[in-house]
Write a structure and sequence with these properties.
The chain is of the alpha/beta class. It has 10 helices and 10 strands. The longest helix is centred in the C-terminal third of the chain and has 34 residues. The protein binds 5'-O-[(R)-(carboxyoxy)(hydroxy)phosphoryl]adenosine and zinc ion. The site of zinc ion has 6 residues, from helix 3.
């Protein structure tokens, strides 16, 4: 069994995954609520919270899976990219566990982890496919080759999609994280009431941009008083959410077309969005392309996806990983 640890941002996560990386026996996520009052993740607060929680989260992952440390054959951990202090807590814990048991350690890239959530979802999925990762820190399109190598096709030139949702939610006076908060506020809204720009819409490339969208919301809000904002909030939220969904869907479908992709994977925290999932499902169905979207709990940060990436990542044999370091990029 693979014991996996993920602490790259504000979720303290551990999971037990089968040796093929196709099935999660447990998947424990402790979401840090400490950041809500600041309206965004505070790195130092995140590191400390990981330190306090990780032991308990790992214990629960093992007990939920009914697996003892004796049955663990390797330890997988996110080493990059992410908040450096947060990553280091996970890496140090993983090294300690692996070293004490003379096990190999598997360093995993967080983005490869997001994509690997698809292997837990569709047990027969094999590359090649095109993957969209839309999270709080990244928004990028990749072509995943037969040997699982990820080739960058396009990415955001400014904010990530999740970041745009988080910042938009903040401007609208909604909670954190912004993605679910905007969806909730948008429920009874008319997405066509306000016009929001769709970044790089007519550019032939596969890049994204969300800065114009943010500015557009800012100007709309400047022209309103508190009363008007309360009244128009559902429409503003719905229009803003729809613009993010359209920007992502358009470029993903363009990538499928340009690369003649036989399958598509949607990954990252923003892939938990109901409207995005539905839109991409409809468009893929129309062109007959196989789509894999992990369930929402495997889209947002978790350790099962890190365990799923491990069998195809390069393991470091005991005890060679003593000097292994984490990296923010
Ligand atoms: O992948 P993730 O959990 O962490 C990073 O690696 O960044 O993604 C977090 C991002 C946040 O920006 C959050 O607002 C967004 O995913 N998110 C959502 C939803 N759930 C989380 N965005 C839209 N709809 C959701 N349901
Ligand atoms: Zn993530």
């Amino acid at each position: 069994m693979i014991l996996a640890i993920e602490t790259s941002c504000d979720d303290t996560c551990s999971a037990v995954v089968d040796p093929d990386g196709r099935k999660a026996l447990s998947n424990i996520v402790h979401t840090q609520t400490e950041h809500a009052r600041y309206g965004g993740v505070v790195p130092e607060v995140a590191s400390r919270a990981h330190l306090e929680r990780l032991d308990g989260v790992v214990e629960k992952a093992l007990s939920d899976a009914e697996v003892t440390l004796d049955e663990v054959s390797s330890v997988a951990v996110t080493v990059r990219p992410g908040l450096i202090g947060a990553l280091l807590v996970g890496v140090a814990a993983a090294k300690g566990l692996a070293y004490a048991r003379a096990l190999p350690l598997v360093p995993v890239n967080h983005l490869e982890g997001h994509v690997a959530a698809a292997y837990l979802t569709d047990h027969d999925l094999q590359p090649p496919f095109v993957a969209l990762i839309a999270s709080g820190g990244h928004t990028a399109l990749y072509s995943v080759d037969r040997d699982r190598k990820m080739r960058l096709l396009g990415e955001t030139l400014d904010d990530a999609a999740g970041e745009a949702l988080d910042k938009g939610a903040r401007m609208l006076g909604l909670g954190f994280p912004g993605g679910p908060a905007i969806s909730k506020a948008a429920r009874d809204g008319d997405r066509d009431r306000y016009e929001f720009p769709i970044g790089l819409k007519s550019k032939g490339n596969l890049d994204f941009s969300f800065s114009g969208l943010k500015t557009s919301l800012l100007y709309k809000l400047k022209a309103m008083d508190g009363e008007q904002l309360r009244e128009k909030l559902p429409h503003l939220a719905a229009g803003y959410e729809a613009a993010v969904v359209e920007a992502l869907s358009r470029k993903l479908l363009r990538a499928v077309d340009l690369h003649d992709a036989p399958a598509v994977v949607l990954a990252g925290g923003v892939a938990a969005n109901t409207i995005l999932r539905r839109t991409i499902e409809e468009r893929c169905a129309k062109i007959g392309t196989h789509l894999v979207v992990p369930p929402p709990e495997l889209c947002t940060d978790n350790a099962a996806m890190i365990g799923a990436a491990a069998p195809h990542s390069t393991a470091i044999a005991y005890p060679e990983y003593a000097s292994l370091n984490a990296s923010s990029v």
